[in-house]
Write a structure and sequence with these properties.
Layout: E1 12-15, E2 18-20, E3 25-27, H1 30-38, E4 42-45, H2 52-61, E5 64-67, H3 91-106, E6 111-114, H4 116-124, E7 129-130, H5 133-136, E8 156-160, H6 165-170, E9 174-177, E10 184-185, E11 193-198, E12 203-207, E13 214-217, H7 221-224, H8 229-244
Parallel strand pairs: 1-4, 1-5, 5-6, 6-13
Antiparallel strand pairs: 2-3, 7-10, 8-9, 8-11, 11-12, 12-13
Length: about 250
């Protein structure tokens, strides 16, 4: 992990690309990249590939992986049919990320998931999702899960599980977060542990016990980390794990 001159190297972190069907283009939000950069890592946007050998090579090559937000996860991944309230999935992303996630977990590479990331991890590991929170999720306490821009403004609180790695990172029992999603975790996958919940009971963060670093959050630290130091701590913990092998 050191260069010849004794300096610690910056970890290379693969970032899953966003995809725009209308423009047939890959793209990226700067916050994903800048969050990693400011935490001391080198972000590299990955190609959107469905070639298994290519994906396995990527899994071996990079020190860690950031699974970004974006398309709704295909309900087929968790044994359901898509309902009209479900957004259009991206089959290429679903396939690529399924292979990449499985291999990265097997290699015990650090993995950080954001928004779609938490939903994807849960679906791939045997959990289920609400295809649309407004029409399927019932709670006595109504909170805003899909805010209007600007997205750098917190809109609700989450409570952190005190025995979770997330609490170790943040040293806080609750934090304010932003929110921009219409899907969420329904049944939690058995390999995952809940690390935070919203005021209405929706799971907002998960970890994977027994792994070096597998953390996913439902909110969007890439929009808020420059204003909220607690969210910068998420990027820093991720990058440190990619570099040193521990948080």
């Amino acid at each position: 992990m050191f260069w010849g001159n004794g300096r610690m190297h910056k970890p290379m972190i693969g970032v899953v690309p966003l995809y725009d069907e209308t423009k047939e283009s890959y793209w990226m939000l700067p916050g994903y990249m800048k969050g990693i950069e400011e935490a001391g890592g080198i972000p590299v946007m990955l190609p959107l590939s469905t070639d298994k050998e290519t994906i396995l090579t990527l899994a071996e090559t990079f020190d860690g992986f950031l699974f970004t937000g974006g398309h709704d996860v295909n309900p087929n991944l968790y044994g359901e049919q898509a309902e009209p309230v479900c957004g259009r999935p991206c089959e290429e992303r679903d396939l690529m990320e399924a292979i990449l996630f499985e291999r990265a977990v097997a290699l015990d590479k650090p993995i950080f998931g954001i928004c779609r990331g938490i939903q994807l991890f849960n679906a791939l590991l045997g959990g289920t999702l609400y295809q649309d929170l407004p029409s399927q999720f019932e709670s006595e306490k109504q909170i805003l899960h899909k805010q209007m821009p600007p997205y750098g403004q917190p809109v609700h609180m989450v409570t952190i599980e005190k025995d979770s790695p997330l609490f170790t990172i943040l040293k806080e029992e609750s934090i304010p977060v932003n929110s921009y999603h219409h899907q969420g975790i329904k049944a939690l996958a058995e390999p995952l542990a809940c690390a935070a919940t919203a005021e209405d009971g929706l799971i907002e963060a998960v970890t994977m016990p027994g792994k070096r670093f597998v953390l996913a959050v439902q909110w969007h630290p890439e929009f808020i980390f420059q204003k909220e130091e607690k969210n910068m701590k998420l990027f820093k913990a991720f990058v440190v794990s990619c570099q040193h092998g521990e948080v």
